[in-house]
Write a structure and sequence with these properties.
The chain has 390 residues and is mainly α. It has a single domain, classed as Growth Hormone, Chain: A, CATH 1.20.1250.20. Helices cover 83% and strands 0% of the residues. The chain is built from 15 helices and no strands. The longest helix is centred in the last third of the chain and has 34 residues. It starts with a helix and ends with a helix. The relative contact order is 0.16.
């Protein structure tokens, strides 16, 4: 298949992946809250789903590296996800079955994006600097769906999230199946490369720590959107509009990511993202209306797109192709997994026992720590580069 056509296909796949997830992933927490589950039980559900997701990151990433068949692993995981979401439709109103099925959903959902990224970035002949443009398709798909879908949920009820996901994810599976690619081949070597070698890469570990701190704030907001908006008079429709604002902004960020990354060093981009994230959390804290909260999502979109595009390419540069899937899935496990667990623990207990205000205080503190941490990394890198030129 022609390289240009493959790029278009991957952009469409990214679009459909997040277009479909915008029907279920954004609203299932609001659905559970609507069914009467407490924030602690919802937090437990998110935590278990995330723990299983981290396991899935490692298992599916390992299988991909061993077999060199990332596409097949992606298709298998997506097919299982569709089946599990169907199961959620039957299990949602029963506590234990709901928790079990959400754990299985986490196991296959969390690795999907990193598997797709690895598939894209390991495809022979593709210009990896165009990753930002292809990833913009994901944000655009998510924005289109969430902008209107919240209204459908209000009108037709939460059961619609299951039907909508199964249909849209079915189109995604077909599109991915029809996309034919060749994988980059590394020179043959007898040297064994183990996943644990990633843990010896200081730059890799340093940026993983930063990404975890950064995304504790992102996941804290995303996981408890329904409580944030209900606190200021909002509903599920406002959640969708806010997510759409963030996603539309991400589209712009991803489209211009290639130009920005070519002119600004990664650590400087990460520092800028740290400041944007801190500002977003603070403004969300002082918001008193749904409109004000929705507008802060613009900052989230800018920060998320700049960070993700830079982060993905940064990981590609510092890891061998044979470990690319593992490096991306571990990074995703830390960024979206561990951070989600911490954020869920904080939100689940703080909101129930102390109120949303104390939850905001902790998010602001974590955002400040992340900003200081990346500032120190940037300063140490600056001093190192300066000493080399003297």
């Amino acid at each position: 298949m022609h390289t240009h056509r493959i790029q278009i296909n991957f952009t469409i796949i990214q679009f459909l992946l997040w277009f479909s997830w915008g029907t279920f992933g954004l609203f299932y927490i609001a659905y559970l809250e609507d069914l009467g589950y407490s924030s602690k039980l919802i937090a437990l559900t998110i935590i278990l789903s995330t723990v299983f997701g981290i396991m899935g990151q490692y298992v599916l990433g390992f299988i991909s590296d061993k077999t060199s068949k990332i596409k097949h692993v992606f298709l298998g995981a997506l097919f299982m996800l569709i089946l599990f979401v169907i199961g959620f439709g039957f299990a949602a109103k029963h506590v234990l079955p709901m928790i079990m099925i959400m754990s299985l959903i986490g196991f296959v959902w969390l690795p999907l994006e990193s598997l797709l990224d690895s598939w894209i970035l390991s495809t022979k002949g593709l210009d990896t600097s165009l990753y930002g443009f292809m990833r913009a398709g994901a944000s655009f798909g998510f924005a289109i769906m969430t902008l209107f879908f919240g209204g459908f949920v209000i009108k037709y009820g939460y059961d619609i999230i299951v039907y909508a996901y199964v249909i849209t994810a079915g189109f995604l599976w077909i599109m991915a199946f029809l996309t034919k690619t060749d994988t980059i081949k590394e020179p043959h070597t007898k040297e064994k490369i183990y996943v644990k070698s990633l843990l010896k890469n200081k730059a890799y570990i340093a940026i993983l720590i930063y990404s975890m701190l950064l995304f504790i704030t992102h996941m804290g907001v995303n996981n408890f959107y329904i409580y944030i908006f209900k606190n200021i008079g909002g509903n599920a429709s406002h959640i969708g509009i806010s997510a759409a604002f963030a996603a539309f902004t991400e589209v712009i960020g991803f489209v211009y990511a290639r130009r920005i990354i070519s002119k600004i060093a990664p650590l400087k981009i990460f520092l800028i993202v740290g400041f944007i994230t801190f500002l977003r959390v603070y403004l969300l804290t002082v918001a008193t209306t749904p409109t004000q909260a929705i507008l802060t999502a613009i900052l989230q979109g800018i920060g998320f797109s700049l960070f993700l595009a830079s982060f993905k390419l940064y990981v590609v540069k510092i890891t061998p192709t044979r470990l690319l899937a593992s490096a991306q899935t571990i990074a995703a496990g830390v960024t979206f997994g561990l951070s989600s667990i911490v954020a869920s623990l904080l939100g689940g207990f703080l909101i129930d026992d102390y109120g949303i205000g104390r939850f905001y205080d902790i998010l602001n503190l974590v955002a400040l720590i992340a900003l200081i941490y990346i500032g120190l990394l940037f300063y140490m890198d600056y001093k190192k580069r300066k000493s080399l030129t003297e």
